[in-house]
Amino acid sequence: MRLTKVFVPDELPDSPCDFYPVPDVEGTLLAQVTAIACLATINSSTISYRSENEGKLFVNLVVFPPGRGKFTEKSASKMSGHTDGVSFPLRGQSDPENGRIAPSPDFVCLSALRNPNKVPTMVVPLTSLMEKLSEEQITELQKPQYMLGSQLTFREGMKEILGDELMVDNAQLLFYVDDSWWIRFSHRTTQTAETDDKLAQEAMDALKDACADCAIPVALEPGDIALVNNRIALHGRSKVGEEYGGQTRWLLRAYGLDISEINSEQWHEGSNFMLYP
Ligand SMILES: O=C(O)CCC(=O)C(=O)O
Ligand SMILES: [Fe+2]
């Protein structure tokens, strides 16, 4: 869902060069308040995970200057289709080994502050993907035969909190939940659990091909907010380019989740918005 011109991003400083801090000015404040209000209207609380960017509720999605290794590289490049928090369970389910692990977000909320080159965010609806998959492939994707790693932004924090990056060994990618399909997937961090499982691999390859065919480009403009349903869509983006700072692309990202069934252990101690891990 794209909301057009829902806040006025005035008085912005140069685009920052890191996930945080979010500069404390009127434009970013309006973007954040509007995002929280939009999420609230769809029954989602604005949440974060302590393991990602120290649990900051809003982070800058910007290009990083040289010298930050993989982060610099990723910040400028294309992102293939993924769900955010892919190694976390779906809402209503639990991690097979650690019941404290909170669910992945229901929504990814992107507020656009700057996007001068109109670099599109890509949205891939699951309904379109399903139409491209055969019944056999859909069956394979529902089997617990995939291995999921965590996204780069979570890795350091997970090492601190869990001792290691969270990996899920026997994961399904597709789920039939309450009469509808849900997905968890990331091009970069998903593999088959067994290296020579042909059917599992073919089904995943078909899913990747379908993604390429079904991606809808959404070039966010300053003042726009995109609410991407992280259960029934994948998202990504086109290449951004190496230029950083100044007037370059700058989005704020937050996550939304229906927290009505989150138990007390799944919160980071002492916080009412940061989840574990
Ligand atoms: O930059 C974008 O448009 C999306 C970024 C994204 O999906 C992410 O950082 O996980
Ligand atoms: Fe994402």
CATH level-two architecture? 4-Layer Sandwich
- The structure class reads alpha+beta
Radius of gyration, rounded?
A: 18 Å
Portion in helices: 10-25%
Highest-level CATH class: Alpha Beta
Q: Could you write a compact summary of the structure shown?
A:
By secondary structure, this protein is an alpha+beta fold. The protein has six helices and 16 strands. It has one domain: Clavaminate synthase-like (Double-stranded beta-helix, 4-Layer Sandwich), CATH 3.60.130.
Indicate the topology:
Elements lengths: L1 E2 L22 H16 L3 E5 L9 E3 L8 H7 L2 E4 L24 E8 L6 E5 H7 L2 H7 L4 E3 L3 H11 L5 E4 L2 E4 L2 E4 L6 E3 L5 H17 L1 E3 L6 E5 L3 E5 L12 E8 L16 E2 L2
Parallel strand pairs: 2-16
Antiparallel strand pairs: 1-13, 2-15, 3-15, 4-14, 5-13, 5-15, 6-12, 6-14, 7-8, 7-11, 9-10
Helix pairs in contact: 4-6
Describe the structure.
- The chain is an alpha+beta fold.
- It has a single domain, classed as 4-Layer Sandwich (Double-stranded beta-helix).
- Helix content is 23%, strand content 25%.
- The protein has 6 helices and 16 strands.
- Strands 1, 2, 3, 5, 13, 15 and 16 form a 7-stranded mixed beta sheet that branches. A 4-stranded antiparallel beta sheet has the order 4-14-6-12.
- 2-oxoglutaric acid binds next to strand 14.
